[in-house]
Design brief:
The protein has 328 residues and is of the alpha/beta class. It has two domains: 17-178, Rossmann fold (3-Layer(aba) Sandwich), CATH 3.40.50; 179-320, Hypothetical Protein Tm841, Chain: A,domain 3 (2-Layer Sandwich), CATH 3.30.1180.10. The chain contains 13 helices and 13 strands. It has helices at 2-16, 37-43, 67-75, 87-100, 116-130, 145-160, 165-178, 189-193, 199-207, 231-245, 262-276, 288-294, 311-320, and strands at 26-30, 46-48, 51-54, 57-60, 80-82, 104-108, 136-140, 179-184, 210-216, 222-229, 254-258, 281-285, 299-304. The strands form three sheets. Strands 10-9-8-13-11-12 form a six-stranded mixed β-sheet, sandwiched between helices. Helix 4 crosses helix 5 (116-130) and helix 6 runs antiparallel to helix 7 (165-178).
Length: 328
């Protein structure tokens, strides 16, 4: 009964925001979404690229460095680091919207992983000094990779179907809070380089063929929550976790991501469809923002753990698809 009351309250609160609807707005995000190319093209989506440093030279995720090339560079053992989009970069990306008077809704990479949110807000403060009428809403996703991208895609789909900015923000906050991200990592090398495991654990894990299973926590951080011996068992655990955590997987769009392991992803997708009756799956390539810290070979699944307050949009997407969307 308590759950039902909470759900009805959430629904009524969502419906109430229709009274202050804003329909003329632009959605912007960053490359940590791992947004598929087809989605960027369909929605003419502005994606601010994450910086990547390779042997001391700056590149930009999805712009001057693409995932397939990036993982070959990792395998070659080159020195690769990332840093978050800084205040100046945000300023230059947001200023054209301020100049043209466009209202912007920016969905931001998790503060649990990078300082992107703070940098974006500092840029906003500077822009408001020069353009006091500029309307910019910044939402911290506390999400990463295609789990982040999934929430943004659903927001874009809602906007395309007439949802106001307020409706999109309300629904997307729920999706951010209830998006599960489960990844299996093929090597411990990059977790060690990123300081997430010790050198001793990396060496021992390599000898024992340990495959970490990583999740994004409620605080938006990447954490190892389980370790399994062997890739086959790790994939089985990933499959099992979908069954345990996903809300009616057959009634939602699932998102599968890989780090230059397309064949493994295809086999996993086929099994997910058969086991759980999933009708719609989006496949994505893990970009540089997370890939630099997890390495090649990763396979991940992202999905909602609860019924969405805008489930009718998702039901329509599952039943009818959408022109321009690419499903597996």
């Amino acid at each position: 009964m308590v759950f039902i009351l909470k759900f009805l309250f959430r629904r009524s609160r969502f419906c109430g925001i229709k009274n202050m609807a804003t329909h003329n707005y632009t959605i912007v995000t960053d490359s940590a979404t791992d947004m598929p190319k087809w989605a960027i093209e369909k929605y003419n989506l502005k994606v601010i690229p994450t910086p990547v440093v390779i042997d001391g030279k700056d590149y930009f995720d999805g712009d001057t460095i693409m995932p397939a090339e990036f993982y070959n560079i990792l395998r070659e053992g080159k020195n690769v680091t990332t840093y978050h989009i800084n205040q100046y970069m945000f300023y230059t990306n947001f200023e054209p919207y301020a100049q043209s008077g466009e209202e912007v809704l920016y969905f931001c990479f998790s503060t649990g992983i990078a300082g992107t949110y703070n940098a974006a807000n500092l840029a906003k403060e500077d822009l408001l000094d020069k353009y006091p009428d500029f309307k910019l809403d910044i939402m911290d996703s506390k999400c990463a990779a295609i789990g982040f991208g999934a929430c943004v895609l659903l927001a874009l789909y809602m906007k395309e179907n007439g949802a106001s900015k307020e409706e999109v923000m309300e629904a997307t906050r729920f999706h951010f809070d209830h998006m599960e991200h489960i990844f299996i990592v093929d090597t411990l090398e990059y977790l060690y380089k990123g300081g997430r495991i010790s050198r001793t654990s990396a060496i021992a894990g390599g000898l024992l063929d340990i495959k970490p299973i990583i999740e994004v926590t409620d605080e938006g951080k990447l954490e190892v929550f389980q370790k399994v011996r062997g890739r086959k068992k790790a994939l089985m655990k990933l499959m099992e976790t979908i069954g345990v955590r996903a809300y009616k997987p057959e009634n939602q769009v699932l998102f599968i991501v890989h780090a230059d392991a397309s064949d493994d992803a295809d086999a996993f997708i086929a099994e997910v469809k058969e086991k759980y009756g999933v009708k719609k799956i989006v496949k994505a390539f893990l970009g540089c923002a997370i890939g630099a810290h997890t390495g090649p070979g990763l396979i991940g699944a992202c999905f909602l753990d609860s019924e969405s307050p805008v489930q009718s949009y998702i039901d329509k997407l599952v039943a009818e698809g959408c022109e321009g969307w690419k499903f597996e």
